[in-house]
Amino acid sequence: MSSEPTADTTANGADQATLRLRRVAIDTYRENVAYLHRQCPVYRAEGFQALSKVEVRWQNRRMLAVVNVVDDAALVGPGELGLSTEAFLDLGVEEGTSVCICHAQPPVSMSAVRRKIAGERLTAEEFMAIARDIAERRYAKMEIAAFLVASGQTGLDRDEIMNLTRAMVAQGQRLDWHENLVADKHCIGGIPGNRTSMLVVPIVAAHGMLIPKTSSRAITSPAGTADTMEVLAEVCLTPERLDQVVRQERGALIWGGTANLAPVDDVLISVERPLGIDYPGQMVASILSKKIAAGSTHLVIDIPVGPTAKVRHMSEALALRKLFEYVADRLGLFVQVVITDGRQPVGRGIGPVLEARDVMQVLQNDPDAPADLRQKALRLAGRVIEFDPDVRGGDGFEIARDILDSGRALTKMMEIIEAQGRQTKRFELGPLTHEVRADRAGVVIGIDNFQVARIARRAGAPMDKGAGVDLHVKLGASVEVGDLLYRVHADFPADYGFAISLVAEDCGYRIGTADEVPQVFAEF
Amino acid sequence: MSSEPTADTTANGADQATLRLRRVAIDTYRENVAYLHRQCPVYRAEGFQALSKVEVRWQNRRMLAVVNVVDDAALVGPGELGLSTEAFLDLGVEEGTSVCICHAQPPVSMSAVRRKIAGERLTAEEFMAIARDIAERRYAKMEIAAFLVASGQTGLDRDEIMNLTRAMVAQGQRLDWHENLVADKHCIGGIPGNRTSMLVVPIVAAHGMLIPKTSSRAITSPAGTADTMEVLAEVCLTPERLDQVVRQERGALIWGGTANLAPVDDVLISVERPLGIDYPGQMVASILSKKIAAGSTHLVIDIPVGPTAKVRHMSEALALRKLFEYVADRLGLFVQVVITDGRQPVGRGIGPVLEARDVMQVLQNDPDAPADLRQKALRLAGRVIEFDPDVRGGDGFEIARDILDSGRALTKMMEIIEAQGRQTKRFELGPLTHEVRADRAGVVIGIDNFQVARIARRAGAPMDKGAGVDLHVKLGASVEVGDLLYRVHADFPADYGFAISLVAEDCGYRIGTADEVPQVFAEF
Description:
homodimer; alpha/beta; Barwin-like endoglucanases; Transferase, Pyrimidine Nucleoside Phosphorylase, Chain A, domain 3; Pyrimidine Nucleoside Phosphorylase, Chain A, domain 2; 6-stranded mixed barrel; 4-stranded antiparallel beta sheet; 19 helices; 39% helix; globular
C-alpha cells in the first residue's frame, strides 16, 4: 500500500515523543516502572494507560517499563519521564537527558509463554528467548507470574527443565576458576539454623580443595549464609578481591549478588516468593543455573525431609534427587544429592548473630557446641571431600572430622575471615528478650520450622543481625511446666511486639509423649 | 504454651506501627500500592521489603497493598504511609490520619489458587472466597495473573465457570428494575465499528421493551459504546438519574462504570488485557456476571467469526455458544447466542465521532448509511424483540425494520439523548488527516480488524473522540491503483505520527483477486 501524508499537516510524530529523564526515588523491586504525567502529550498518544508498557530509548539503549500515571507535577511534570530507582540505574543515563519513548510491544517470547499456558512443550530456543527477555527486564511481574504458573508443577518435563537451566546460565556472568575441580554445596532451604556451609567451606578448604562459595542473603528466611558470615567478615567483595581470597585460601564465603550470576533467577524469585510457589522444576533450574554460573564443577545438594520442611515425603525427595541428577549430568556438573533429617531446626540459634555463635562453637570444639550442626556439617564436608580423586569412597567423614578436631578448620576460618576483611562493626544479641516456656509437662514432639523462622523474622532477622530465636530444647527433650523452650531476641520495640504477637498465635512447639516424636526420615 | 514478657522490656509493638496517611498522586491501575520510606521504622520491622504486602487498618477498615520503598522524604517521610490514588480513595480516610499497618498474610483464598495451579477442581465456596478477596483488592496483579493462567483454557470445567460467574455476581452492586423482562444485548468484541447497540436500544425501546444498556469504555479497542454515545449525550449518570431515564424512555445507553457492577471483572480485565489472554471460560464469566449484575433477564449475545476476529473458526464459536447457554441457563438468564460475520469492520467509521456519524445515518434512513451496520442492527434488534412473548418467532426482524424505517427509532434515540442530557461539548472530526491508497489494482480481499483498530487507537481514539479511521472501501470492492482505501483522522501531531508509522508497517488492507475474498462464516 502507498501511504502519503496529505497537505494539511507537517507533523513528525517521532520528534514529539521525547521527554526529559527524571529519577524517581521509588524502589519497585525488580520491575521497571515509568512515571508519566497524565497530561504528558506522549502518554495521551499512548492511547489509554496504566495497562500498557512503554519502551524507553536513548541512543542504542532500550528498556521496557510498566506505566504508572502521575497527577502531581512536583513528582513528574508533563514533559518528563520518571523512572523507578533500579530502572534509572539500568538505563544508565543522566537526569535531564532527552529520551524517546514509544509503544512497547509485549516481549516476543510471550507468545511462547502463551503456548506453554496452552500446555505445549517449549524448545531450547524458546527458553533462550524467554530468559533473554526476562534478563532485559522486558517482562512485567504479572507476565513472570504467567510464565511460572504455566510451567509450574507438571508443566515442564525434565528436558524442558534442562533447557530452562541452560537458558538461565546463558544470561549474565559466568565465573571461571581455571581448575578442574571446583567444589560447592547447596541446601534447598527451609530449615532454620542450617548454617553448615560456614563449617563445610573451612573444612574442605583446609583439605586443599577449591570451594569459593557464593551465597544469597535471606529473602523469606531469618538468615542466609551471607547474612551470617557478615557478622564475622566482609561478604561484598569485588570479583578481583574474591579471586585473590580464593587463590590464597582455597575457600571463601561471600554474597553472590555482586557478580550478576544468573540474573534471570533473581527476577523469577522476586515473583515466586510472594506468590508462595516453589516448584521442583524451577527449584532445580534456579539452583543449578546459579551454581554453574558460579563456576562450580562438583556439587553436594542437601534435601532436608520432614513434616515442616520444604520436602515432606521421602518419595518426593527421591523424585527431586533424580531431577537434579538428570539436569546436572547433561550440563556437565557432578552432583551428589543427600537427603537429610529436616524434622526441626539445626543447631540452636536462628538469626545471624546466634547462628554465627553456633558455627564458632563448633569450630572451636566447644563442648557446648550443638551436636546436630557438627554432625551434619561433617557428613556434608565428607561428601564434598570424596569428590577428591585421591580420597577413597567412605573416608571423607573421618578426614573432615580430623580437620575439625585438630583445629585446622578453625584456623582456616580465621584466615578466610582475615582475607575477606574482618567485620569492623560489632553486632550484639538483641537486648529485648522474651522467654517462651512450656505450659505442660511432656516431651517435645514437634518444632515447626516454618513458624520458628517466621518468629525470628518478625523479631527483626536478618536485617537486625542480633535479632532471632535461641532454642533451648529440641525434639525428644523432656520438659516440665515452666521450662524454657526458647528465647526471642529483638533490637527494636516494634519488631519485638510483632514477634510476641506471633508467638501468642502459635509458638511453634508441640509437647506430647515420647512415642509421638516423629521418626527420622533420613540418615545419610 | 505460655508466653511471658521478661522484665527487661515494656515495649508494645502494636502502638509503634502507626503512620500518618498521605495521598500519593500515582495511579497504579487497580493495584493498591503503599509507599513506605526506607527508614520508616515499621518498614524495617516488616523484615525485608518490596516483596511483601502490608495490611493498612483504620478503625474497622482494612486494605492490602503492595509495598514500594521510597528514598525521597519529599514524597513520603519516614513517619508516613503513602497510598496510590485509587487505594487512598478506597480506604476513604483523610490525609494526616494515623493509620496502623501490619504484616499482611497472603489472601487466604490463594491456597485455592495454588490448588487450581496443581490442576484440582475448585468448589463454589472457593470461587466465592477468591472473588471476595479480589473485590477487596487483597490480590496483587501477579496473584491475579496466577489465578487467570491456572484457570485458563482447559483449567475450568463448565460448572466451575458457572461457580466463578456466580461468585463474581455476588460481589458489588446488583441492579433491580422490578420488571419481568429486562432486555440486553452484548457482543464479545473484536470488530471495529460494531456499534449496533446504539441502534438496537432505540429500536427495542420504541417497541416498548425495557432495555437499560450499560456499556464499557474502550480498554484496548478504539471505541466502546459508552465512548461513542458520549459524542451525543451524557453517559455518566447517577443510579437515580439512570432510573428516571429508563422509566421514562424504556431504554438508556450509559457507562456502567459508576454502578460498581461485578467489580471483580474489572480487576481481572486489568490483568488479562496486558497479558493478552482471553479464555472462553473467563469471557463467559465476565460477560454474564456483568449482565446479571446489571439486572438483565434476557440477553442476545453476538459472536462474530472471521479470520481476524476473536473467534476464528465456526467450531470454536459453537463451543462458546454452548458454554454461554450452559452457564446462563443455570443462573436464570435467558440467552440467545447469534454467530455473525466478523470478517471485517462493521460500518465505515472507527472512532467515537465517526461511529456516531454512522449510527445517526442509519437512524435517519440516510441513503448513504452503511448497509452492513443497518442489517446487522436490525437482525439483532429482531432477536431481542422476539423475547417479547407477544411476538411470533421470526417476526422480530420486520418489526425492527418498521420501527427504523418509520423514523420511530430516530425519535426514540433523540428522546433518550434528551433524557440522559444532550452533550454540551461539540466533538469535531480530527483535522490532521492522512489518506491511504491502493498501490495495486484488484479486489479488497482482507481488512485486518486488529490492525485497523490499532491504527485508529494510535491516531488518538477513543481519548480524542474525533480521531480514528474512516473506511472508504470494504471487502469485495474493486480498486484501481491510487484509489482511496481509508482516511486516518487525528487531533494531535504526536498521535498522527504514531498512526502513520503504524500504517507504514502494515496498513491492514489486502488486495487480490475476486476468488480470494474469504467466504462468509455465518449468516444469521
